[in-house]
């Protein structure tokens, strides 16, 4: 198992170190023979080599079986030109590795229910998987740009495009994922306004014919945003376009009250890039305050989706639950009566909880 490790910027550096200590423990326990190699990405890479995604990093990511990424970005690099912003590295990796299926689980931990801004009865037990198309749609559609018109005003434009094969492959992923969970897929679009997503709806409906055992529903994106905060437990798997998925996955994440807990997988078959949903949190970077659990849970997703090791993945998830039940908390999920620990200690605790 060859894993490219790209810690990136801000707290990315710390959370990845903590996650690797857990991976080491799992490697020893299951004899996985994990090989890791580190490379720079994001602003850190830009500072060193003038580009957020150096060729060597891309090469390493392409050759690896899986990629573990921390986070990219920070105020330091915000003034930079779009082409060399840290975020470009993320989009570049997604596109170059064709990581078209982004899986973002929003699952609430019983010990953390009160961290949600919504009422206990609304969020208790939620377990949603957002399946976001990741390499198409308006993020990558052409033409795009900003042009100056003859009268001196400017016009900005992006293009929303999806082809039948692009929709088919993401729909299949959603139905396959649903089969292993609650067997329900809600496809989110804006078919009442956007032709492109009218096609989306039609193709998803057609792919569904091969998945009679999975229930399919459709929802407009505005309604989906509302339903997510009204009664999130109605959802099992949500499948949607790149931009709608960007927005709805943040919303779903916050239902759990703790974005510091949420992992993600970006897949192309079994090849995948795994990263926490949270960002680089520059305000707390380098202070040993970050929550490494999302990255640790991303390692669990890696074991599950890239290496088919459901046993090892479940082991990590159980260890995380155990540490939370023992009342250990990082600052972001801290509440009265809990024991506050730093990033490194949290990593150690999870590693120790793996028997
Ligand atoms: C995400 C982020 C990225 C996105 C940004 C950083 C490019 O918001 O992964 O959700 O929009 O996809
Ligand atoms: Mg986002």
Structural class: alpha/beta
Averaged pLDDT, please? Answer: 97
The quaternary structure here is single chain
Strand content: 15-25%
**Main CATH class of the largest domain:** Alpha Beta
CATH topology of the largest domain: Isopropylmalate Dehydrogenase
CATH architectural label of the largest domain: 3-Layer(aba) Sandwich
Q: Could you name the CATH homologous superfamily of the largest domain?
A: Isopropylmalate Dehydrogenase
Q: Which ligands are bound?
A: 3-isopropylmalic acid, magnesium ion
Approximate helicity band: 40-55%
Tell me how many strands there are: 14
Return the domain count.
2
Secondary-structure element order, N to C: EHEHHEHEHEEEHEHEHEHEEHHEEH
Radius of gyration: 20 Å
Question: How would you sum up the major sheet?
Answer: 10 strands, mixed
Report, as a whole number of angstroms, the end-to-end distance. 22 Å
SS field, number of helical segments: 12
């Amino acid at each position: 198992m060859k894993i490219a490790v790209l810690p990136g910027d801000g707290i990315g550096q710390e959370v990845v170190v903590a996650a690797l200590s857990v991976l080491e423990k799992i490697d020893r326990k299951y004899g996985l023979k994990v090989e890791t190699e580190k490379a720079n990405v994001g602003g850190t890479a830009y500072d060193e080599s003038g580009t957020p995604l150096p060729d060597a990093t891309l090469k390493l990511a392409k050759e690896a079986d899986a990629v573990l990424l921390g986070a990219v970005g920070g105020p330091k690099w915000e003034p930079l030109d779009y082409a060399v912003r840290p975020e470009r590295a993320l989009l570049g990796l997604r596109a170059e590795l064709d990581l078209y299926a982004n899986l973002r689980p929003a699952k609430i931990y019983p010990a953390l229910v009160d961290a949600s801004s919504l009422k206990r009865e609304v969020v208790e037990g939620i377990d949603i998987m957002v399946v976001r198309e990741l390499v198409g749609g308006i993020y990558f559609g052409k033409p795009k740009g900003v042009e100056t018109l003859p009268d001196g005003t400017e016009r900005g434009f992006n293009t929303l495009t999806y082809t039948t094969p692009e929709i088919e492959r993401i729909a299949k992923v959603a139905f396959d994922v649903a089969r292993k969970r609650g067997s329900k897929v809600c496809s989110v679009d804006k078919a009442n306004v956007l032709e492109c997503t009218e096609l989306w709806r039609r193709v998803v409906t057609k792919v569904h014919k091969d998945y009679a055992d999975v229930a399919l529903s459709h929802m407009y994106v505005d309604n989906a945003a509302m339903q997510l905060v009204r009664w999130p437990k109605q959802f099992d798997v949500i499948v949607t376009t790149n931009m709608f998925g960007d927005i709805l996955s943040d919303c779903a994440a916050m239902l759990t009250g703790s974005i510091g807990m949420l992992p993600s997988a970006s897949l192309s078959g079994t090849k995948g890039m795994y990263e926490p949903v949270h960002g680089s949190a520059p305000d707390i970077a380098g202070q040993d305050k970050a929550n490494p659990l999302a990255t640790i849970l991303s390692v669990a997703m890696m074991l599950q989706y890239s290496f088919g090791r459901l046993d090892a993945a479940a082991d990590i998830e159980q260890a995380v639950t155990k540490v939370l039940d023992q009342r250990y908390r990082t600052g972001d999920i801290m509440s009265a009566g809990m024991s506050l620990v730093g990033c490194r200690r949290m990593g150690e605790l999870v590693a120790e909880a793996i028997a």
